[in-house]
Amino acid sequence: MTLATTPQTKPLTDEELQKINAYWRAANYLSVGQIYLLDNPLLREPLKLEHVKPRLLGHWGTTPGLNFIYVHLNRLIKKYDLNTIYIAGPGHGGPGLVANTYLEGTYTEYYHNISQDAEGMKKLFKQFSFPGGIPSHVAPETPGSIHEGGELGYALVHAYGAAFDNPDLIVAAVVGDGEAETGALATSWHSNKFLNPVRDGAVLPILHLNGYKIANPTTLSRISHDELESLFVGYGYKPYFVEGEDPADVHQQMAATLETAIAEIQSIQREARVHGFTERPQWPMIVMRTPKGWTGPKEVDGKKTEGSWRSHQVPFGNIAKQPDHLRLLEDWMKSYKPEELFDADGKLIPELAELAPKKHRRMGDNPHANGGILLHDLKIPDFQDYAVDVAEPGKAIAEATKVTGKFLRDIMRLNQESSNFRIFAPDELASNRLDPVLEVTDRVSTAEIYPEDDHLSADGRVMEILSETSCQGWLEGYLLTGRHGFFTCYEAFIHIIDSMFNQHAKWLKTTRHIPWRRPIASLNYLLTSHVWRQDHNGFSHQDPGFIDHVLNKKAEIVRVYLPPDANTLLSVTDHCLKSRNYVNVIIAGKQPALQYLNMDAAIKHCTKGIGIWEWASNDKGGDPDVVLACAGDIPTLETLAAVDILRQHFADLKVRVVNVVDLMTLQPKTEHPHGLSEKDFDTLFTTDKPVIFAFHGYPWLIHRLTYRHTNHKNIHVRGYKEEGTTTTPFDMVVVNDLDRFHLVIDVIDRVPKLGSKAAYVKQQMQDKLIEHKHYIQKYGDDVPEIRDWKWPY
Amino acid sequence: MTLATTPQTKPLTDEELQKINAYWRAANYLSVGQIYLLDNPLLREPLKLEHVKPRLLGHWGTTPGLNFIYVHLNRLIKKYDLNTIYIAGPGHGGPGLVANTYLEGTYTEYYHNISQDAEGMKKLFKQFSFPGGIPSHVAPETPGSIHEGGELGYALVHAYGAAFDNPDLIVAAVVGDGEAETGALATSWHSNKFLNPVRDGAVLPILHLNGYKIANPTTLSRISHDELESLFVGYGYKPYFVEGEDPADVHQQMAATLETAIAEIQSIQREARVHGFTERPQWPMIVMRTPKGWTGPKEVDGKKTEGSWRSHQVPFGNIAKQPDHLRLLEDWMKSYKPEELFDADGKLIPELAELAPKKHRRMGDNPHANGGILLHDLKIPDFQDYAVDVAEPGKAIAEATKVTGKFLRDIMRLNQESSNFRIFAPDELASNRLDPVLEVTDRVSTAEIYPEDDHLSADGRVMEILSETSCQGWLEGYLLTGRHGFFTCYEAFIHIIDSMFNQHAKWLKTTRHIPWRRPIASLNYLLTSHVWRQDHNGFSHQDPGFIDHVLNKKAEIVRVYLPPDANTLLSVTDHCLKSRNYVNVIIAGKQPALQYLNMDAAIKHCTKGIGIWEWASNDKGGDPDVVLACAGDIPTLETLAAVDILRQHFADLKVRVVNVVDLMTLQPKTEHPHGLSEKDFDTLFTTDKPVIFAFHGYPWLIHRLTYRHTNHKNIHVRGYKEEGTTTTPFDMVVVNDLDRFHLVIDVIDRVPKLGSKAAYVKQQMQDKLIEHKHYIQKYGDDVPEIRDWKWPY
């Protein structure tokens, strides 16, 4: 292992140092101004109470450090014409990034009313954390950002996601020492084992050790220098340390260290691009240890503030009641000497303005941070070419995800050259039957590879790590920088990224109202190894609740699909991969299963999203006596098997089968753009007949979606009710009352006209259930007639 | 830093080595038998197809390693009379732990029908992964376990949770190299900065590097030895390496290394307990690198199997169709020489049985792994002593969580000596206003402490790390070993542990049906800094959906409380801390807010969980014209303010106010034990009057809970509809239509009898909303009359 030593030279001339420091002062000045001021932005008159915001919001602590890094990156971008974006991990660094994009001119170009003069500065200050203004985090509104602050821990995964397949890009990722404690961040350092210097860009992690969170010191700031160094060497990096409090000294250290780091990155890339990938390089990273709230007030009310957790948010408030606080604020802001930084109009003076890069090299204006600009459509073959032959419904057998795996394989092949498509999975690609993809690409690893490894190489485009957070974060970073992706995961464990999904959905919602943000590719989940086929893995693997979670987000963002077979899954997958700005959740089985629809029928069905399956119904030319609705592959199977039994016993019973692919159709049209009109819903479900709804997920979700519809009171839903263990596939549906026999009983219990035969059939169903229990306890497997049932008509 | 060197001695005599290896063979034999056999358990007749299970389920890969560690721990437990529990991190190690607890006799004591003879062994084999049998993971059914395999990543947090305040306990925590990639696990190594050798037990992490996950090599198995060593030194451990394939050699290494590790643990503890805590010790940990599927078939169908991902699950199946596989299985099982291990009856021979520890020293029978046995009630002062004085409803101001912070402070104080209560928070204790607790204890840290740190010491009982997964996992480990805890978190970010909550709730559900598992203390969440007071942190911090997630789990397990003020919060907190085997979710505000109920009224209200607030209603002696229902502190405030407006304008309107503390009361009694009867629900909500329901969370949750009730069609819910940004507190409710003015409009729109004044008042409400928008955009704060509104009657 190579331990890095801090470069000892002082690369900055005195003049450069002065200018860089002045630029930094300007950014700090603007940051404080945003937090505190409503007016008098240049302090050209004595500061008065009415110039100060009545509600003080925002976070100072991390901001000077973020500003410091920004100005130093600017220097290197200019010097070497670097293509760089900036990821601000620390949650509340909003004022810093806004200040810097304003200083470099981007902000005014994106928001014309925030002009580069005193009037614009006043607006800049006022809007921050102000009703109708901008949030206190780095946010979608912030030019140059692909990463919302707030929830923490995703700086590095977003950075790596941005760097994949962007060979010229350097992603500077500032990691807060608070967020470094999160699980998502702690494992994300290992992303370097998935980055290939030949084809990918670089990530330069900068761990910003300012020592404190809200109220506690940070873990990484309180371990020894040796341990810290070992930790990052262990993670595979070459750590450089920039440490101090004296700006002049730290400026020199940072300038020298960044020079070294950039040179090493370029040398690694040159070497790899000339000679090909040989072994994982030891990428540089920087540990920057500077005081929290650096350059802020040393003490407030006699208590240490700079370099303490007291600087985390607003270092002091209560300005109305403590006049000394007003003076403290004025003194603090004046310590940056705004009169030296801004001209008479309030514009940054030209000697400093020239420190910023130009046009798209400005980090606020780098097109990678507004990925929609760079987005190209995926090349997608005709999904109909992958159709499973379904001569008659319910007879042929296929593995839905395996079929879609072939479709994905060819998408992968067609876009190999444009390098804009990757598949993400927590070690589950093959388990989820998408392994046809491995015919054209590998799994990627730049760690050591053994000859016996299966489809593993530094060039692979399948990203597998047993970390759902890393998969999700990489994919988000990849999408936000204008590429396409696909995430496959076991259904139960996708909850691990519930909170990350929230943040991405919120980001998408917000960007829809920001005109300069261009649409990005949708985030597509294929959840398989789902609840109904987790009999072998048991109760811990059984949870279909991600849908419930997703549906709490804005209807304009989320889509949920439950294709019942292979051809419908193909059609839905094609649709999702072509969509923009959504989160699409597809749930489909991976096991060999009955196929119902040929391709024409599948396309028609998916286009409507919901429909009557005429071939399974016998209510033609009249009202049905009962509607059997189903959503999901296993519920569809059990529903059809129930229909089979009903037809055998009750020839006169008019049964209608409704299958739902697009779950959003069930909501009223007023609630979701895919929702059915009241009339269409009534046409399908009747206004007064019993509806037995077999659902993939928790049953109450169907009630939540349909409660406003006329016939809601007659809808009886079966679904997963949190019963399960290691058992047989059919027993899983039995213990949750979703099986064919229970469904038949449900019909018998609700349709009055069945007459004397009803009791007899009901008893027969109960006998079947008992017989099933005996059989599985004896043989450990399902009754063959049940297991091998096919649609007999 | 000190780098450990592998101890070079060979501590085992030949005889010991032979015996230990024989015991290991026995465990491996039983493991394979569980995966494959239905009958012929001792292979005393030639193996035939009918002896083999028709469905082969389970995981072999990790099992021999787990067995290997178990037998070596047994040796040290006996030798030094250690008090040790075993945490099996790798997901599917079920057969191994079952085999070992069977060999040591615990299993038969817990499950009498699984006797220690051929008949019992046959049952042991059959039940594994068999319908009606036991899961393939280490599970609640497994004696000695506090940790379900399946979802991965929590081995270390559970281990540390168990070790806290258990000074004599050594928790051996086997970490799979697959799960080591998860975020939760990657950050959990840092738990050593929270462990105090004076008062806590020890965790001995054993990273089991067997190289492969389902289909991929593991990250940590493919970095260099140097990096691996640095990583763990960086994490603060002294890593020892046990590596090899030859059992005899690895037995000696493991025996020597475990001796060393235990000696170091004991020396660290002795030193600290004699001289007090001085600095964080470098605790030992072990990296054990052995082949995946060790001792299994080297090759199957010509493909490498031992030492490959092909050993992950069942190394070969298809036994019915490939007779050579039947022979392979027989040869494999016979390679363990069962005839040397088990006597004529099928019982482990005495020379081997004596290797196991006795009674409670057996890891399967250690009482810490059945924590309910050790559980003592918390000493809890009378919560009424902390009552806020509420002379009249809706006039006094208090901070609810601050008040409860004082209650918690005294609980902490009273239980200081018994050392069985801790509070967990992701750096949010003070932010959530529970800081009174710091009057009697500190935050804990065994990392470096500076003089300016705030209430931080190695003796603290408040556990703060910016990792929700660590907080959750520690707490789970602490509860499962028979102690009490309290987790406070920002509401939005509790979603980070959604999936961990699932697993704990499933564990609780399962244990309810295992007679020997004793009830443990409930897992209590206090979610604050909630959605309605995240105006300053903005959209990313706004998500009240954890309730929705929680309610998908079994009704018998989950409870959700929304106390509207300080006294109700006290009462609810008291109730939750005394409860067993639940997950309790309490949601309450931390900001200064109106108080409504004096302590007597609060107790009555909380006991019922729901009720009419007579003092706010004017429907006495008759039916109301409208019901205004509310759940949550801010919805309650807005509802009362709306009632105030309604009374001013419509003196004749009969308004009933219903407040809900216990959300579960809204469900039908058939669905939840707290549910109201249909009659009681109708009495509160009427059968036909409009109900305007102001709810803390997503509005559809109320529909989901109430859709079966008579008056459901008239329930109109306002709640969070995913609108928000950085704004003012009142504007947060306005943008979600939950404010008093919208509520008044909702009433006007639904009550026909209001006459000609209705249109005028409605217009006035709309004017108020516009006025509010203008005001906040000008002043950045809410209109004082709105902000400072109190109940005027």
Secondary structure topology:
The structure is a homodimer of 793-residue chains.
Chain A: H1 14-36, H2 63-80, E1 83-88, H3 94-103, H4 106-110, H5 118-127, H6 155-163, E2 169-176, H7 183-188, E3 202-209, H8 225-234, E4 237-243, H9 247-275, E5 283-289, E6 299-300, E7 303-304, H10 323-334, H11 338-341, H12 350-353, E8 397-399, H13 400-414, E9 421-425, E10 443-444, E11 456-457, E12 462-464, H14 468-480, E13 484-490, H15 498-511, E14 523-528, H16 546-550, E15 558-561, H17 566-578, E16 583-587, E17 592-594, H18 599-608, E18 610-612, E19 626-631, H19 633-649, E20 655-660, H20 678-685, E21 691-695, H21 700-706, E22 715-718, H22 729-735, H23 740-750, H24 757-779, H25 784-787
Parallel strand pairs in A: 1-2, 2-3, 3-5, 4-5, 9-12, 9-13, 10-11, 13-14, 14-16, 15-16, 19-20, 19-21, 21-22
Antiparallel strand pairs in A: 6-7, 8-17, 18-20
Helix pairs in contact in A: 1-2, 1-3, 1-5, 2-3, 2-9, 6-14, 13-17, 17-18, 19-23, 23-24
Can you characterise this structure?
Chains A, B: One of its GO terms (biological process) is carbohydrate metabolic process. Chains A, B: Residues 590-791 form the Xylulose 5-phosphate/Fructose 6-phosphate phosphoketolase C-terminal domain. Chains A, B: InterPro entries: Phosphoketolase, THDP-binding, Transketo_C/PFOR_II, Xul5P/Fru6P_PKetolase, Xul5P/Fru6P_PKetolase_C, Xul5P/Fru6P_PKetolase_CS, Xul5P/Fru6P_PKetolase_N, Xul5P/Fru6P_PKetolase_ThDP_BS. Two copies of one chain form a homodimer. In chain A, the strands form six sheets. In chain A, strands 12-9-13-14-16-15 form a six-stranded parallel sheet, sandwiched between helices. A five-stranded parallel sheet of chain A has the order 1-2-3-5-4, with helices on both faces. The longest helix of chain A has 29 residues, at 247-275. The first copy, chain A, starts with 13 loop residues before the first helix and ends in a 6-residue tail after the last helix. In chain A, helix 2 (63-80) runs parallel beside helix 3 (94-103) and helix 17 (566-578) packs across helix 18 (599-608). Chain A has three domains: 14-367, Rossmann fold, CATH 3.40.50.970; 384-593, Rossmann fold; 610-787, Rossmann fold, CATH 3.40.50. The mean pLDDT of chain A is 96. Helix content of chain A is 36%, strand content 13%. Chain A is of the alpha/beta class and 793 residues long. Chains A and B meet through helix 7, helix 8, helix 14, helix 15 and helix 21 of A and helix 7, helix 8, helix 14, helix 15 and helix 21 of B.
